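User: Assemble these into one structure.

Assistant: Restating your components, then the assembled model:
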Amino acid sequence: MSLELKNVEKKVGIDTHIYPTSLKLEKNTINVLLGSTLAGKTTLMQIMAGLDKPTTGEIWFNGENVTGMKVQKRNCSMVYQQFINYPNYTVYENIASPLAITGVKTDEIKERVGKVAELLKLSAMLNKKPDELSGGQQQRTALARALVKDSDLILLDEPLANLDFKLREELREELPKLFEDRDCIVVYATTEPSDALMIGGNTATLLEGKVIQYGKTLEVYNRPENLISAKVFSDPPMNIAEITKSGDNCKFTNNDIQWKSSAKIKDGTYKIGIRPHNITTYKEGNNPVEINGKVQISELSGSESLIHFTNGSLNWVSLSNGTQQKNVGENTKLYMNTDEFLYFDQNNRLVNNG
Amino acid sequence: MNKTINQKAWYFVIPVFVLVAFNAAIPLMTVVNYSFQETFGNNVFAWEGTRWFKQILLSERFHASLGRQFAFTFIILLIQIPLGIAIALTMPKKGWGVPVCLILMSMPLLIPWNVVGAMWNIFALPDIGFLGHSLNAMGFDYNFTQQPGDAWFTTILMDVWHWTSLVVLLSYAGLNSIQPAYYQAAEIDGASRWATFRYIELPKMKKVLTLAILLRFMDSFMIYTEPFVLTGGGPGNTTAFLSIDLVKMALGQFDLGPAAAMSLIYFFIVLLVCWVFYNLMMKNEAQS
C-alpha cells in the first residue's frame, strides 16, 4: 500500500496554493506535514483525500491512478482542527455513522464501535451528545469515527490545535500508539515542530506551498537539507548568522567571536544555523564558545528558560535548562555549543554539521 | 466589601418607568378598563364584570375569526418555513451572486404593508390585474372579490411573497455559520445530500429556525394591513382575521367593551402560544 503524489500542483485563479510536488508515502507510516499556517498543509491533505482535485499532476494509490476519484470511493477518513461530529447523534451513533452508511450489520457495528470507544476511552460516554462532552472528548469521538472505518488513509488536520495544553499532551502521547497496529497510511498536519518530533515517523517540511524536505523525522531535524527546512523545523526560531572560515578557524562576520571547526568544508563565507538550545547559560559540548549578550526578554517556564539577547547588531534566542533568572538589560555571558552548528553555503544548502 | 447605601439611585429609574408607563402600561390599562365596563356617551361608565369576556368567548363570530386566524397562520407557516429553507439552500455561498440574491430577497421586506396590500389588490383584479386577468385567460374562474377560496388563495400568496424572504435570510445566515469541515466530514462518510441536510444543516439551523417560526407566527397572527387593503375581510367575513374583526367591532360597531375584552383574549393567546413554543424549543435545547 502506498500513496504517491506525482507532480501535483494546485492553482486557484492566479494564486498557486501548491507548487509541483512529488511525494511517496509508504504503508504503515505516520507522515507529518510540518509548516506554518497557509503553508498548504490542508490543501495537500484535501488533494490526498480527493476532496479537492489537483490542477495538474496525478495521485496514485496502491499502484492505481485515483486522480479525480471521489472521496467516497477512496476509503479514507479525516479529523479536523474543529471538533466535527453530528450534533444530534449520540457518541455511539457518531462513531457508528461511517459504518451504518456503508451497510455494515448491527452486530458488527456494535463490536467495532465498542472496541474503538475503549481504545479512545469513550466507553462511558457512548450515550451522550457531543455538546455534553469536553473538547478533548469531542475530538476523541471524531478520532474514533476516523478509526472505526479501517481506512487506508487517515488524515489528521491539526487535530490538537484547539485543545488546551493538558489534553493536547495526553492525546499527543496516545496518537502514535493508536495507529501502531493499523494497516494504513497516516498523515498528520501540524504547525508545531515538537508535535513532529513526538510523533516520529516521517516529516515533510512545508513553506508557502512547497514541500521543502521529506524524510525520517529525526533525519530532517538533524540534517535539514537547507536553511528553509531548518527554519521550519525549529521552535523557538533558529539563530542564523554569517561566518567566514579559513583553515580550522571560524569567525562571525559581525563580531570577533572565533572557534575551531573540524568541519571538512572549503574556506569561505557560510551561514550557520544555531538552534536555541545550543546557546545556553552553561557550557555544553566539546568546544563551547563564549558570547556576550544584552538580555532583551527573559521567559521562564520552570523547566526551561528562554532568553532573547542582542550581540552587536544581531538578535539571538537561547534556551537553557532549569530556571536561569536574568534581568532585562543585564549583560550576561552565554555559551554556544559549536559541535551542533549547521553550516549552509551561499545557496542555503547544508554543507556540514558539527 | 462595604455596601454603600444610596437610595437616590432610584431616581435614575424614573425616566424608564415613565416611558414604559406611557407606551405600555397606560394604554393596556385603558383597554382593561373598557373590558370590564359598559361605555355610554359623555364618559359615563357602568360596571359589567366579566360579561364581555363571557360574551366573546361564547360568541360564534369570535370562534369563526379565531379559526380563520389559526388556519391562515398554520398554512403560511407550512409554506413559508420549508420554502424559505429550500431557497436558502439553493442560494450561492460566495461570489457576485451573494449580494444580488440578498438584495432581491430583502426587497419585499422593505415595502410598506399597505403598499403590498394595494399592489396585490391591483395585481389580482380579475379584469385588469396581471394575475387575475392571466388566470381567467387560462380558463380559471378566478375572482378574489367574490369567491372566498380565491380570496384565501390571494391572501396566502401575498403573505408568502411578502414574508418568505425573512425565513430565507435567517436560514441563509444559519447555513453560512456551518463550518465547511462539517460538509467535508459528511462527504468522507459518504452521507447523502438528504442525510447532510437532516443531520448537519437542520440541527445547526435549529436556533434561527426557532426564531423564524416565532417571528412568523406572531406577525401572521396579528396581520391586519395587508388583508384589510386586499380584501377588507371579504367576501363576506371569509377573510376577516382576528385583528380585522376586532377593528370592525371596536370602530365599526363602536362596541368598546366587547372589543376590549377581545383584544385582551387575543393578546393572551399570542402570549400563550409564544411562551409554550419557546419553552418547548428551549427544553429540547437543554436536553441535547
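Strands of chain B lie at 37-40, 44-47.
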